[in-house]
Design brief:
By secondary structure, the protein is of the alpha/beta class. 28% of the residues lie in helices and 14% in strands. The protein is built from 5 helices and 8 strands; from the N terminus they run αβββαβββαβαβα. The strands form 2 sheets. A 6-stranded mixed β-sheet has the order 1-5-4-7-3-8, with helices on both faces. The protein has a two-stranded antiparallel sheet with strand order 2-6. A hairpin with a 5-residue loop joins β4 and β5 (97-99). α4 crosses α5 (182-194). Mean pLDDT is 91; it is low at 4-9. It binds zinc ion.
Length: 195
C-alpha cells in the first residue's frame, strides 16, 4: 500500500512552481486516461498533488505494490481524503485496471516524496503472502500497463527502473513481497513492449 509524503526539501522547487503559475501547465481533461482500456475511478485530491510531469519532474521509475486487500478496498481508501495515499493504478485479479490518479500528477504511494515525484505507482489486488492471488490475468494486464508507461517516458525495462515498494529508500513497507515473480513480470513487460 502507499504511504504518505516523507519530508523532502526539493531542489528546483522554484522552477516547478513556475510551471504552475506560468500558464504552461500541461493541458488536461477531467476523466481522461493515460492507459487505454482503464476505468477512471478518481482518488481523493488529498491523496495526490497536482503537477505537470514530465515537464516539472522527470518520470523514470515504476513502483509495484500489493494492496494487502481487495481491488475495492484499494479504491475505497484512495477515495478517502484522510487516507493520505493513493497510487496511479489498481490492477484487479481478472486484469481489469482502474486509473485513480493521472500520470502527470504526483501520487502519494511510496512513502518517499522524491520517489513519488519521479514514479508511477501500480497497486495489485491481493496479499503479499498469498501468491495464488497473483493471477496470469493480473501479471499480463499489469505488464501491458508498465510497458506503456516505460514507452511514454522512455524508461528502461529493468529492475533498476521497475521496483518494489519495499525497495524504495526509507519505506517500511514489504510489498509486493517475495512471491512476486519478477523474472516473469519483466519478461511479460518486454513482450508487451515488443508487440
Ligand atoms: Zn505499497
Amino acid at each position: 500500500m502507499g504511504a504518505g509524503t516523507a519530508g523532502y526539501a526539493g531542489r528546483g522547487e522554484v522552477q516547478r512552481w513556475w510551471w504552475r503559475v506560468s500558464g504552461r501547465e500541461r493541458p488536461r481533461t477531467n476523466g481522461a486516461l493515460d492507459h487505454a482500456g482503464a476505468e477512471w475511478v478518481a482518488a481523493s485530491s488529498a491523496n495526490w498533488r497536482r503537477a505537470s510531469r514530465p515537464d516539472d519532474y522527470g518520470v523514470d521509475r515504476v513502483v509495484v505494490h500489493v494492496v494487502q486487500g481487495s481491488y475495492s478496498d484499494a479504491l475505497r481508501v484512495f477515495r478517502d481524503p484522510l487516507h493520505e495515499a493513493a497510487a496511479h493504478y489498481v490492477v484487479r485479479k481478472d486484469g481489469h485496471i482502474a486509473q485513480t490518479v493521472r500520470e502527470l500528477d504526483v501520487a502519494f504511494h511510496s512513502g518517499n516524496r522524491a520517489f513519488n515525484e519521479r514514479s508511477i505507482g501500480i497497486e495489485h489486488e491481493g496479499y503479499v503472502d498469498r501468491p495464488a492471488g497473483f493471477t496470469d490475468a493480473m501479471y499480463t494486464a499489469s505488464a501491458r500497463l508498465t510497458a506503456g508507461i516505460c514507452a511514454r517516458y522512455k524508461i528502461p525495462v529493468d529492475r533498476t527502473h521497475i521496483v518494489a515498494h519495499s525497495e524504495v529508500p526509507g519505506t517500511d513497507h514489504t510489498d509486493p513481497g517475495p512471491h512476486w515473480d519478477w523474472d516473469r513480470y519483466l519478461r511479460l513487460v518486454r513482450e508487451a513492449a515488443a508487440s
